[in-house]
């Protein structure tokens, strides 16, 4: 026991204990609301073996629980999975006790690279350069990385609970902030219980987030790595193979086909007087427009919905014909739902700012830009489209303050709306003045020099108020699975036929390459039967259907050969020159629907009476499923 016989002053309790320990030769630390004091002579060291993957995780865990003290020694040997600790005996004992509870991987279960190819979703991020900013659409790899990394999100993406629980907790498994909105996982069919258990395993050992507060973890992020293979559109995960099933289940829910939506935009300027008359015909009572009583009058809505887009377009074409409206642009763009589509017509000027020694050049961009993010909805069996719209309309003018510097006038609209399929969303409210100089003159007399301008011509300037309208018409095209849904007015069977041919090629029924055909022709010229082909008895084609020999040449179908395999074959016929002049065998005349290659041997030019073999590579004939049986007509004398 010691006796305090001096006054010690300190700014804090920690400083007081430090000065007291220096005076009376003891060391101290606090853990779990308990003060531990021991003589300085009882300082000890220990070598603690843990798994190599848990070295950094142990340090983070001890810091989070408040045990690790920077005043005492701490070192790691990550390649050996060893932790070196030095301090009071009780402190070393507590650290050793915690290190025993760190879960190590199963014996023989080492980290490996797991590859997940994606079919519909994008593995890498998509960056859209938009004016002076960038729009980033996260890919599957970034989503997984955010799930496993709590350094920036505290266990959540954009403040939302990843597991859809919405409750208070810590790290990934806890759900983030107490009042954070939950992510609607049920709509995509995610098994949140299984996902939670899997993420808990990842976090408890070598994961990317901490279960005890969501603080920084350098070790977890180094143990599990997620990256995107852009070339193969695949996600690469470096983790334990035993967790492959968990990742596979999550990626399967993310890699789903999305709907394709075409957005047709019409940008036009219209005279406000004509617009007022147009609004009287398209009022609320007519049932064709949902909005205010009149279009874009003062005090009414400048956004409305048109159900009969065709009739409205006819009205606009009529106004365009008499000069009351002018179409600025009519772009159309196809995009996936929930993916932003950007249309930008801009002009850039450069503003020069000069100081005493430095001159800076700043770009100024203005114009018409349209950013739309569509989403398909189903309301009582009726398809609808939600549009999230951001519009910027502006122009570069001469500054009123400095004639040598440009000025920018801009207008911005940001809104979202839900409209029926094939309906249109009309956005207005962008006003402007247009000056038109008109010349009125008497025919012929007005063209007389000097006198005509003075006596028979008059000039006038008309100022008209214009309003710019943005008309957006979304159309559901289909999804990423069936391209035939792209064909609305054409023949979908053509697309189906192409899809069947693609499927046949994937199943091994590929057509021969140019090298394959050359190899077969060379073998036949050398007098050998083609490898992999059997000798057929007769030609499956008529010679006239294979080639049109042209004037002076005949094809002898009696002397022919046929070598075939499953998908294609080679027909050999004899061509003879029956004229008294040299005639060339024109390979382009052998262009039937089944022909894929033609060659003549030994000569393409035939002298009078000379013969050559003609090799014709053809596809095996197939009966078209679209062929129909002939039906005799019931009308007398009529032919089917």
UniProtKB/TrEMBL annotation:
Does the keyword Transport feature in the UniProt annotation?
A: yes
Localization of this protein: Cell outer membrane
Can the keyword Transport be found in this entry's annotation?
A: yes
- Keyword set for this entry? Cell outer membrane, Membrane, Protein transport, Signal, Translocation, Transport
NolW-like domain location is 48-106, 115-258
Tell me the protein's name: Outer-membrane type III secretion protein HrcC
Q: Which domain of life is it from?
A: Bacteria
User: Source organism lineage?
Assistant: Bacteria, Pseudomonadati, Pseudomonadota, Gammaproteobacteria, Pseudomonadales
Indicate the segments forming the Type II/III secretion system secretin-like domain, all copies.
318-477
Q: Which InterPro entries match?
A: Bact_Secretion_Sys_Channel, NolW-like, NolW-like_sf, T2SS/T3SS_dom, T2SS_GspD_CS, T3SS_OM_pore_YscC
Q: Among the record's GO biological process terms, what is one?
A: protein secretion
Instruction: List where this protein forms a coiled coil.
Output: none
Any one of the GO CC terms: type II protein secretion system complex
Enumerate the residue ranges of region (Disordered): 170-191
Which family does the record assign?
A: Belongs to the bacterial secretin family. T3SS SctC subfamily.
